[in-house]
Automatic annotation (TrEMBL):
SUPFAM superfamilies membership: PRTase-like
Name of the molecule in the record: Uracil phosphoribosyltransferase
Species name: Streptomyces rhizosphaericola
UniProt keyword annotations, A-Z: Glycosyltransferase, Transferase
GO-annotated molecular function: uracil phosphoribosyltransferase activity
Top-level EC class: transferase
Residue intervals of the Phosphoribosyltransferase domain: 5-208
Length: 214
């Protein structure tokens, strides 16, 4: 697990998005700044390929480039908050979708929808799941990738907040998956919300917080 450096700037950004009185616009802006840091760290974990280019002065620069086969997969809908930043950073990257919801009776994650590139198993995947509380949804999404033939070692989980419980459970079930997160929380409350927490990330990012909750 890679935890972003806990700089003063990152803590300031977290302070802005954790504030229950933050406007929807502020939440989106500051969340996207953190998301970009997460994606940069996640991309840096990929196996870059060597590439040589000729500079404007006619010299050769021995550089690197991202692997040719790279795909982002968002866990709908909170994971969709990361798509715009990823597409700006990696123009033309393909995006897959996985929709998982928790069954109200069994409390277990249930797969409702998936749409992935047919050759996703041939490259590397950035799995975008902002919240890692119990770890159930992230593991269910990983199972979808496994069924599609993606090796665990080719997956990087891009995560905004994680609980110790979620990290432990995911780490035991998928030790070869790399995890990048910006914060590890103190724990979870009786409703499985992380504390100190951020609320429902998807609702706050997309502006669908119920009036009574706002």
């Amino acid at each position: 697990m890679l935890l972003l450096p806990q700089t003063s700037l990152l803590r300031a950004l977290h302070t802005a998005v954790r504030d229950k009185n933050a406007s929807g616009r502020d939440f989106e802006i500051y969340s996207r700044r953190i998301i970009r840091l997460l994606l940069e760290a996640g991309l840096d974990l990929l196996p870059f390929e060597k590439r040589e280019v000729t500079t404007p002065v006619g010299e050769t620069y021995h550089g690197l480039e991202l692997p040719g086969r790279l795909c982002g997969v968002s866990v709908v809908r909170a994971g969709e908050s990361m798509e715009a930043e990823l597409r700006e950073m990696v123009p033309g990257i393909r995006i897959g979708k996985i929709l998982i919801q928790r069954d109200k009776r069994t409390k277990q994650p249930e797969l409702f929808y998936k749409h992935l590139p047919g050759d996703i198993h041939t490259g590397h995947v950035l799995l975008m799941e902002p919240m890692l509380a119990t770890g159930g949804s992230a593991l269910a999404a990983l199972d979808v990738l496994r069924e599609a033939g993606v090796p665990d070692e080719n997956v990087v989980l891009i995560n905004f907040l994680a609980s110790p419980t979620g990290l432990e459970r995911f780490g035991l079930a998928a030790p070869d998956v790399k995890i990048v997160t910006s914060a590890v929380e103190d724990g979870m409350n009786e409703n499985a919300f992380m504390i100190p927490g951020i609320g429902d990330f998807g609702d706050r990012f997309f502006g669908t917080v119920p009036a009574a909750a706002s």
